[in-house]
Each structure stands twice: as structure tokens, then as C-alpha cells.
Amino acid sequence: MAMGSTRNTVIISCLVFLAALHGIQAVQYAVTNNAGNSAGGVRFTNSIGIPYSRQTLASATNFIWRLFQQNTPADRKSVQKVTLIIENMDGVAYASNNEIHVSANYIGSYSGDVKTEFTGVLYHEMTHVWQWNGNGKAPGGLIEGIADFVRLKANYAPAHWVKPGQGDRWDQGYDVTARFLDYCNSLRNGFVAELNKKMRSGYTDNFFVELLGKTVNQLWTEYKARYGN
């Protein structure tokens, strides 16, 4: 017994060491369908399912870590568990306290490839779990724009999104800001990752100057001009 116990201790110690060596951060994923026999609840079960949802949460996390260049646990938020809840509610989805809530009403009424749309929604909401928000000081439109930027780079942007150059303000949010951030990222590869890193402790529009040498309003004007808008 003592020899077996010692062997197990050694194995566990090695696994812990390897995990630390490779910067592994174990995250648990839980999925619950609270929508019951509603149209959206049934469609979720038949067209998407819990196993696929759990797999997508993990894939989205790994994609976000790579895109944000968060290569070690020290670079990331300390999140041990993310819970996805499908429920009958208005709207599409929201993330709060490491929980992602997705509307079964939306799933049930969506006309199109619901699995692909659902996947894109999860990439957006999972970004909210992992991104920094400038300690609450960053514009809401920028926060939502970064989440849609992740969805864009993961190739889950839906056809109805605005085209590059469209929109009224750089911090209009969602697809408008995502397209603008994609332009900024083309000027400096990794710009969004560096911006997110700076937003760990606070926020100022001057981050754009520090990273790209121009004010955000200058960048927006040049972005609009590039696409004839």
C-alpha cells in the first residue's frame, strides 16, 4: 500500500509540474437547458446539444487566449468554471459572473443555420468572460466591439453585419466597432491583444496613441476615408 501510495503521489506531482510548466489553466464547463419543452428548448436539444455546447465553450476559451496573447494563467482572469444556461427570456444572450445566458426564444425563432449562429454568440459572450474592461472605465461600445472582433476573427460573423467602413462612431459597439478594430489590427498585428492587456488596470483613449501613434478620432476618420465613407 505504501509503495502504491508513493507511486501515485509521484505521478500526481509530475502532472502538477507539467501543468505549471505549460501554463495550463483548468476550466470547468457546465451546460444546463432550463427551457424544457419550449420550442427553443427542443431545438437546442435537437440541433445543438449539451456536448457540442461544452466543446464550443472550451474551443472559444482557447481561441480567445491565443488571440489575446494570454499565454500563461498570470495573463488571464482567474476563472475556474463557466456555466452556460439556456432559458426562456427576451433578447439574445448576456454574460454575468462567469455565467452565459442564451435565449431559448431566440434559438427557437432563428431562421437559418442555428448551430453556426449559436456558436458565434458563444464566442462573443465567452469574450466577456475573459476580456479586461478597464476596471469599468472602458466605453461599453468598445467592450462589445472587442467581443464581436473575436467573433469576426473566429469566422462566425453573420451576413447581416455592417460592411467595413460603415457606422457613425468608432465606439458605436458590436459589428461597427469590430470592423474598426479589425482595421486597427491591420495597422499593427496584435493591436487588440495589446489594447486588452492595457485595459487590465484602467482605460484611456490615449491607448490608441500609445499603440498606433494617432488619436482614435484620427484613426476613425482615416478608416472611413479608406472605405469611401
Report on this structure.
The chain is α/β, with parallel strands linked by helices and 229 residues long. 54% of the residues lie in helices and 10% in strands. It is built from 10 helices and 4 strands. The protein has a 4-stranded mixed β-sheet with strand order 1-2-4-3. Strand 3 and strand 4 (99-103) form a beta hairpin. The longest helix has 20 residues, at 2-21.
Helix and strand string, N-terminal first? Answer: HEHHEEEHHHHHHH
| Terminus-to-terminus distance | 75 Å
| Helical content (DSSP H or I, runs of 4+) | 40-55%
Strand order, sheet with most strands: 1-2-4-3
The low-confidence parts are 1-23
* Count of β-strands: 4
Structural class: alpha/beta
Dominant shape: globular
Q: Given the structure, what is the number of helices?
A: 10
The major pleated sheet works out as:
4 strands, mixed
Mind telling me the C-alpha Rg? 20 Å
Quote the average pLDDT: 91
Describe the secondary-structure layout.
Blueprint: H1 2-21, E1 28-33, H2 39-47, H3 50-67, E2 81-87, E3 93-96, E4 99-103, H4 104-109, H5 114-130, H6 140-153, H7 174-187, H8 191-198, H9 206-212, H10 216-226
Parallel strand pairs: 1-2, 2-4
Antiparallel strand pairs: 3-4
Protein traits:
229 residues; 54% helix; alpha/beta; 10 helices; disordered N terminus
Brief write-up:
By secondary structure, the protein is an alpha/beta fold. The chain is built from ten helices and four strands. A four-stranded mixed β-sheet has the order 1-2-4-3.
